[in-house]
């Protein structure tokens, strides 16, 4: 999941923990059309790199780009133990765009590891494969779709469905 927040000036004066300032501009979760359906499993095949394209019409200025990997490999049936790995980068956008970011979500706060409405969505699709020596093995083959938490993606054409 990748979010963008407009610093409204210098990022050195920006506090991204206040307000609904984070706009999701990209996401990749599960894609049955890919040879490796899970985005997190594709990373090693891509030299641990992930490329995104910024919306081309956004206004010049300083922004914080937040990319987040959501680890569901240890998530239990109650939605607990989801692991979030965010990383933030300060970027400067140049060009002639004039579009301001719309209102987004609050981070932290929009979702959390034990939020059954956003993270547990995938858990209902897991099928218990076996239980051996205190290890629960989940059968990922039964998953047919997954939408990452954090709302829709916004881009040059507005909000996605």
From TrEMBL:
Transmembrane segments: none
Boundaries of every Auxiliary Activity family 9 catalytic domain copy: 1-118
Cofactor: Cu(2+)
Subcellular localization: Secreted
Keywords assigned: Carbohydrate metabolism, Cellulose degradation, Copper, Disulfide bond, Metal-binding, Monooxygenase, Oxidoreductase, Polysaccharide degradation, Secreted, Signal
Any Gene Ontology biological process: cellulose catabolic process
Location (main, coarse): secreted
Enzyme Commission number: 1.14.99.56
Top-level lineage group: Eukaryota
Keyword Lipoprotein among record annotations: no
GO molecular function: metal ion binding; monooxygenase activity
Reactions catalysed according to its record: [(1->4)-beta-D-glucosyl]n+m + reduced acceptor + O2 = 4-dehydro-beta-D-glucosyl-[(1->4)-beta-D-glucosyl]n-1 + [(1->4)-beta-D-glucosyl]m + acceptor + H2O
GO CC, any one term: extracellular region
Family per similarity comment: Belongs to the polysaccharide monooxygenase AA9 family.
Listed name of the protein: lytic cellulose monooxygenase (C4-dehydrogenating)
Organism this protein belongs to: Colletotrichum liriopes
